[in-house]
Design goal:
The strands form two sheets. Strands 6-5-4-7-8 form a five-stranded parallel sheet. The protein has a three-stranded antiparallel sheet with strand order 1-3-2. By secondary structure, it is mostly helical. It has 23 helices and eight strands. It starts with 5 loop residues before the first helix and ends with a helix. A hairpin with a 2-residue loop joins strand 2 and strand 3.
Length: about 625
């Protein structure tokens, strides 16, 4: 067969479920298609398991395949069985519509992969390959514990197109098909569907305790309530096993530390990362330490009402065979998970030892027979739980898992199915998962930004303006699933930048430089304007002076002429007149006139300043009158 991906096969599984409902009947269709496509005439159950894996990426327990072969195909005489070999009879016929159903699902899958590929390319990821997209989408829907290079882009893509007609139905078909597939894979005996046989202790981590009490917000409370509703359904059946919800001593210590931190925040009026929704809901409204203690008591009461209690103390190390904390395991995991702290890995292994003791080392007995499991959304415990160092392999139930995995297994084990009256848990919704993925990543980044910013501020590397600006921005960040939408994705992308603080500082400096350059430019412009005005005024003044110059010259000439008349012409004329008119026969009167003229000449020559002032004022008056007449004529 052509290269087939698990997600396309899962979509077909979901389509067939609508037609048949019975899980064995659905698997028989896949087996028949494999027999037909490969033209098999005889094979063993082991070979059938391998062929299903190769043809449809379905890695299923051999026990289930044997049941399908014997209880369906042999009974219906499509096959015969002898000494471990199944032979095809002449009665064998395959489903004529299977190929068309499969091709339709494959086309939908190919379309989604192509669109994600184009979306990633538009997000400036030029080197992404379609193989990377296929691998990342499968991990996104099946293994959130694994490293996923395109997890953010796939989540963004799903949220971006969640309201597009027909899109969500295609994604839902794949998701629901995967729920059916993983349910089959982790259920060695499908005949027990609809019942819960054994007792199970589920240990909740601190975040799930906050979810249960509502401190982490509405959506996480709904996720827990959906899960707890299935737990209660199991416990209402008096004939089956029971499920208990508990928390470990280690988790109790985390809760104590969390509320203690809340007390100190209230007492000191301190701050904390806005991504910590539980802390916000605890601290809000608290004015003193006693208020925090009251909320802690309310939290404990809510857990008790939900029948969530602390683990019973027992000796977990009495049987060394169940201890998973060996030096070799710790060293191997530390080398494998280089980005993680050895102490954190050691603490998780201690929890896994407790789980293994309660399981008595039995990990391949089905979800309702394992005895205990640790429920957490943290990446590291889930990653270690699937590591080859502690995980028993295909079909084994890991020591730790997330609420989505366990909700799916409960849903499948109780044979709830799809398409009926039962409301699906919201953890089955790929859109919700995408929003949780985005908000979780933003929340981590916001927390890192908060602590890095605080450290830089304490060291004096950033000023108060930057501190206030970034605090304002991170308080608006979509760090809760409820806040994630197509409109907030761009904002989320900003916070996922590894150099967010440096980016903000750089932008601030650029703005300051632009502002400074703008002020300088304005000042220079004002200076140029003033210079132009001054030059214009100078030109106007010069023009006025040029127009006044002839009038000034006339006034100065009049002044000079008066002085010449007074100091030169009149004295000379008087002397000449005196000399020409004097004779021996002059009377005393004529002599007196002559003397007066001489005296007058002497006085005028000895006191010229007053005469000059008088002449200057006379010339000035003449100049002003002439200037006034000029302006009246020119109309100015």
């Amino acid at each position: 067969m052509e290269d087939v991906k698990l997600l396309a096969s899962a979509s077909v599984l979901r389509v067939l479920y609508d037609e048949k409902k019975d899980i064995y009947d659905i698997l028989v269709e896949f087996i028949k298609q494999t027999i037909s496509a490969r033209s098999l005439s005889a094979f063993s159950s082991v070979e059938c398991v391998r062929c299903l894996d190769e043809d449809f990426c379905f890695l299923l327990p051999e026990a289930i395949i044997k049941s399908c072969l014997r209880k369906r195909l042999v009974r219906e005489e499509f096959l015969t069985y002898h000494k471990g070999i199944y032979s095809v009879t002449d009665n064998f016929i395959s489903n004529p519509t299977f190929n068309s159903d499969f091709q339709k699902s494959r086309n939908e899958y190919d379309e989604i992969i192509e669109r994600i590929y184009l979306f990633c390319s538009s997000e400036k990821l030029p080197n992404v390959r379609k193989e990377d997209v296929e691998d990342s989408l499968e991990k996104f829907l099946t293994r959130p514990d694994k490293k996923n290079i395109l997890e953010q882009e796939i989540a963004n893509f799903i949220v971006t197109f969640e309201n597009e007609p027909g899109f969500k139905e295609k994604i839902d078909r794949i998701e629901e098909g995967l729920i059916l597939y993983t349910g089959i894979r982790y259920s060695p005996d499908l005949s027990t569907l609809g019942s819960w046989r054994g007792d199970l202790i589920i240990f909740l981590d601190s975040e799930h305790l906050f979810n249960a009490s509502g401190l982490n917000g509405t959506l996480y409370k709904t996720l827990f309530d959906d899960f707890n509703g299935l737990v209660n359904e199991v416990n209402r059946n008096k004939k089956g096993g029971k499920i208990e919800l508990k928390y470990l001593e280690e988790t109790e210590d985390e809760i104590e530390s969390f509320f203690y931190a809340a007390e100190k925040i209230v007492e000191r009026n301190g701050s904390f990362p806005p991504s910590k929704t539980a802390m916000i809901n605890i601290v809000n409204g608290c004015k003193s330490k006693s208020d925090v203690l009251t909320k802690k008591a309310e939290f404990t009461t809510k857990l008790a009402r939900l029948n969530i209690s602390k683990e019973l103390r027992i000796d977990y190390y009495s049987n060394p065979a169940f201890n998973v904390e060996s030096t070799g395991v710790l060293a191997g995991l530390t080398a494998e998970l280089t980005e993680s702290n050895a102490n954190d890995i050691s603490s998780i292994l201690k929890i896994f030892t407790k789980i293994n003791v309660l399981r008595k080392g039995q990990n391949n007995v089905g979800i309702d027979r394992i005895g205990a499991i640790f429920l957490t959304e943290s990446w590291l415990p889930q990653r270690i739980a699937f590591s080859n160092y502690v995980h028993d392999g295909n079909g084994a139930i890991p020591f730790a898992t997330n609420i989505e995995f366990l909700t799916e297994k409960l849903w499948f084990k109780l044979n709830k199915g799809f398409g009926g009256m039962s409301r699906k848990p919201i953890s089955f919704d790929p859109v919700i998962r995408a929003k949780m993925t985005i908000s979780n990543q933003v929340s981590k980044c916001v927390s890192n930004i908060y602590w890095e910013l605080s450290d830089k501020y304490d060291k004096g590397e950033v000023d108060k303006d930057i501190l206030v600006q970034i605090h304002h921005e991170i308080n608006r960040a979509p760090s809760r699933p409820e806040d994630v939408s197509i409109n907030s994705i761009a904002m989320a992308h900003e916070f996922l930048n590894d150099s967010y603080i440096e980016k903000v500082i750089s932008e601030k400096h650029q703005l300051e430089k632009l502002a400074s350059d703008g002020q300088k430019a304005i000042a220079e412009l004002e200076l140029l304007k003033q210079k132009a005005i001054d030059e214009q005024e100078l030109l106007k003044h010069k023009a006025k002076l040029d127009k006044r110059a002839p009038l000034k010259r006339i006034a100065r000439r009049q002044y000079a002429e008066l002085r010449i008349l007074t100091y030169v012409i009149i004295p000379v004329a008087l002397i000449w007149l005196l000399v020409s008119l004097h004779s021996s026969s002059d009377t005393a009167f004529s002599v007196l006139c002559g003397i007066a003229s001489v005296v007058s000449l002497i006085i005028s020559l000895s006191r010229p300043k007053k005469i000059d002032i008088f002449y200057w004022s006379l010339s000035k008056r003449v100049y002003k009158n002439a200037l006034k007449k000029y302006f009246l004529r020119s109309g100015r």
